[in-house]
Amino acid sequence: MFFMGVDIGSTSSKCVIVNEVSEIVSQAQISAGTGTSGPRRAVESALNIGGLGQQQISYTIATGYGRNTHEAASERISELSCHAVGAAWILPKVRTVIDIGGQDVKALSISDNGTLANFVMNDKCAAGTGRFLDVMARILEMDVSELAEQDEKADEILSVSSTCVVFAESEVISQLSRNAPIPNLVAGIHQSAALRAASLMKRIGIATPILMTGGVAHNLGVVRALERALNLQIETSAYSQIAGALGAALIAKDKMIHR
């Protein structure tokens, strides 16, 4: 038996297929989110990678911002619950999850049994999100994937104090006009994102170990900045970006197995 989780975000689509013993059979990520062909392409890719047909999937759960648009789903569940379950699979004793997505930031408190206990989220402003980093990278005329490498070269952190993306953009442009070193400016951008995330985490109460999920978890500059802000170790994983889809697939499995 196989079970599918589809996480349809604002900027990307992820699909994970697991078997009845909770092993990942295949996974796929497409850099296109809700309202695009991204979800369909993610599902097709995961099926192809796993050598499976849609008829072999026993149950599918859709999650994420665009979950209600996925007509093939057996059920739709909040990304908060799915991220909690996915994070507990990635890091079994996890107690706090910080998820930095394309358009929002979520801090989750995880109970002893690996389920969601509490959460706080910032979904009213793009400050500190993947979108924030995309905008900053564009101003610096580089790909967002280059930010972490630039951060490593910094010998000083140039503060970017504005929490609003628009004001932060003006602040960075002003720094550039004064010939500020790019690495130091990138370090400041990462610090700004990290402080926003740290503030959310403190509101729910931080317990360790801590796992960072979402695509931004692959930016080690932000991870290091968050560790400095909290003075705590932050765990990441190769599976960080698919935590929501993974959790959805695992919940789908449990629903079928325990019927």
CATH-derived topology of the largest domain: Nucleotidyltransferase, domain 5
Spatial order of the strands forming the largest sheet: 3-2-1-4-5
The CATH first-level class of the largest domain comes to: Alpha Beta
Helix-strand pattern: EEEHEEHEEEHHHHEHEH
Can you say what the CATH homologous superfamily of the largest domain is? ATPase, nucleotide binding domain
Total strands: 10
Question: Which CATH architecture of the largest domain?
Answer: 2-Layer Sandwich
Class from secondary-structure proportions: alpha/beta
Instruction: Kindly give the count of domains.
Output: 2
Percentage of residues in strands = 15-25%
State the helix count: 8
Percent of residues in helices:
25-40%
Multimerization status: single chain
What is the typical, i.e. mean, pLDDT? 92
- The N- to C-terminal Cα distance equals 14 Å
- Indicate the radius of gyration in whole angstroms: 19 Å
Q: Characterize the largest beta sheet: strand count, sense, and whether it forms a barrel.
A: 5 strands, mixed
Shape: globular
List low-confidence stretches: none
